[in-house]
Structures are given as structure tokens and as C-alpha cells.
Amino acid sequence: MRVVIAPDKFKGSLSADGVAEAVAGGLQAAGSCTIDLVPMADGGDGTLDAAVRAGFSESTRRVTGPDGSPVDATLAIDAGTAVVELATASGLALLPPDGLLPLTATSRGTGELIRAALDAGCSRIVLGVGGSACTDGGAGLMAALGARLLDAAGSPVPDGGGALADVARIDLSALDVRIRTTEFVVALDVDNPLLGDTGAAHTFGPQKGADPQQVLQLDSALANFARVLGVAQEHDLRDAIETPGAGAAGGVGFAALTVLGASPETGLELVADLVDLRGRVRGADLVITGEGSLDRQSLGGKTPVGVARIARAVGVPAVVAVCGVSSLSPDEERAAGFDAVWTLAELEPDINRSIADAAPLLTTIGERIGQWTRTAAPSEDITSEPAPEEA
């Protein structure tokens, strides 16, 4: 058998590489097969690693972190194309869990990474925007590239989403001119608009430490920011505000679409192209994918469902998923393209122990998947076998 293992990370537990290696270890223990590891990402953290695995060279820069202090962030460059991952410069993981900054966290460091890519002569920049700490509409990113956000007195407003309520004028005259001749692609991992009940503040603000009052404050501040930016660009931005993905990364998606002129692309599709996923799954007997939690968000285009769709499109006979937990019904799992789903929760119901021991648990699951595939005669299609008890 030829097996391709193409999972996303198990957030807070294992990287995509770690997940793939753990499952592969179990498969190898269960019997002989050819295994190709293709760790994936969906445009958020892990996108940079995928680019490096595809042959891009890493370059580290000292930039402004989400709390304003310096951090070392990495971009990947190859043949005039740069991959910039917001999470390395402005990510939630850069802040301590008890030190989240919902009103003041900034995307400035991501703009500084973009400037570094421009300085390196890159003419195409791929921006992965998942995992952000900020809800600043991309204002910090814009400021790093020369935009000036001013209050009613003409003074610069501080960084952070909360201060956007005070923006009265945005001066784009000093915006880096190289933006006009650079192709930008923004890898979106969500489809939320900028504002409203499903927008950046309401959907993701609580994850970044915002209480209910701060969520309302941030949503109102983003609305003001979008209005003033529309005046500065002499363009009605209502369509951009409602564009799916504008709310990604606390509104950085909105700034990418409007100020950088970026073309939106689903993060999974972009990473799939980087690692040649279609070519690598073609001819496989089995594809194994997964992520930490399979849920309704997964159905909106997260990595496992995207991998399953690509595998089915090129004729792979069987696709299975591994995850920490699944809240999908069996019908939803089948509709998403999975012949079977294995969960860590079936082996270890204690969520904390499951997170801490994800690697050995995944190795056990890898063994069980190997045993499951061996129950079919060589001439039989794997998909004819019944779902495992762990599914």
C-alpha cells in the first residue's frame, strides 16, 4: 500500500509534522507500506513551515511583536516569492495566556515583515493570516508600510483595535510605492466579514481576551476605521467589509484586500499548491488527514475536509481522519469525505491527558488504521471495509 499522511496541527498539542510522524510510526509497526508525509496548514500558523518544506529559504527579522516589544519573526523566500506568516510576528501564541491584549495588540510586526520581503526584492508576497493576537483591522500593518492614522487633532493614534475609535483621518500619501507593483495573495482560513455578529470582534475577540463590552467596543472601532479608510481611498468599502475573509486575523484580511490589493485564496488551497498535494496523493491507496477537533468549522474549509476533497478528486479510494475529538455526526463525517474517523478521546477521555499524550495516542491509532487496512484482501477496495469501532 501507498499511504499519504497529510494532517494539520493539533493546536496546543502537536505540530502537523508531529502528528504525521506519530501516525506513521504506528502504521509502520502494523505492517509494511510506503508512507509519504505531507504535513499541512490552512493559511494560519504552519503555513511558513509548509513553504520551507517545499524548498523556500528561511530569513529571520527583528520586528514589533503584538504587545509592542521586539520579537524575532521568520519569512520564507524563493525565486521572488515570499511567504509571510502573521502568527510569527503578531500571533496570539506570542503572548502569555494571562497577558492577552484585546484592545492594544497590533499587527505592526506583520507589516514590517512585508517591508522586509519588499526590501529583499520580492515581487509576489503570500500572506498567511491565521492565529493573530490583534483585532486592529490591519492598521498596524498599514502603519509599518507608511500609512498614518490620525485623530481629530492630527496626532497619530496608538496601535491596537481600541484606538481605531479615535481615527479621524488616514493619510496614505507615504504608503510604500512598491505595493503597487507587487502581487499580494492573502491565504484566508476563515470566511467571516469584518463587522457584525459574525465579524472579527464578535467571533474571534473573546479568544483574544475581549470581554463582551470590549467586543462591542472593537466592532464599533473597526466600523469607524473602515469608514475613514473609505474616505482616504475615495471608495465605498461596503463590499470589502462584507467580503468573506475580511474579518480574518482581527481584520488584517480587510487591510490586505483593500490596501494591499491582495487576491483572496483559501489557505488550504494555497498550501496544497506549495507542497504539490494533488501530485503527491495521486495514485495513493489511502490518505490520512486530521486536526485537533473535527466540528462544524471544519466543514467550512479547514484542512481535513480540503485534503479529503482533493484526494477524492484525483481518485484516492479511501480517506480517513484522525483528531482529538469529533462533534460531527457519522453522516456529516461521510459527507465530508471520510470513510472513517479515529479520535484520541476514544483512547483517552481525559482531555488534558489526551493533549499531553497526543503523540503516543496517535501512534496507537496509526497501528489500528494499519490493522484495519489489512483486514481487506489485496484485491478489495479499502472502502468496502466496515468503519472501525473507534470511529
Automatic annotation (TrEMBL):
Keywords: Kinase, Transferase. GO terms for biological process: organic acid phosphorylation. PROSITE patterns: PROKAR_LIPOPROTEIN. One of its GO terms (molecular function) is glycerate kinase activity. InterPro entries: Glyc_kinase_flavodox-like_fold, Glycerate_kinase, Glycerate_kinase_RE-like, Glycerate_kinase_sf. Signal peptide: none annotated. It comes from the Bacteria. NCBIfam families: glycerate kinase (TIGR00045). Belongs to the glycerate kinase type-1 family. This is Glycerate kinase. It comes from Flexivirga endophytica. The lineage of its organism: Bacteria, Bacillati, Actinomycetota, Actinomycetes, Micrococcales.
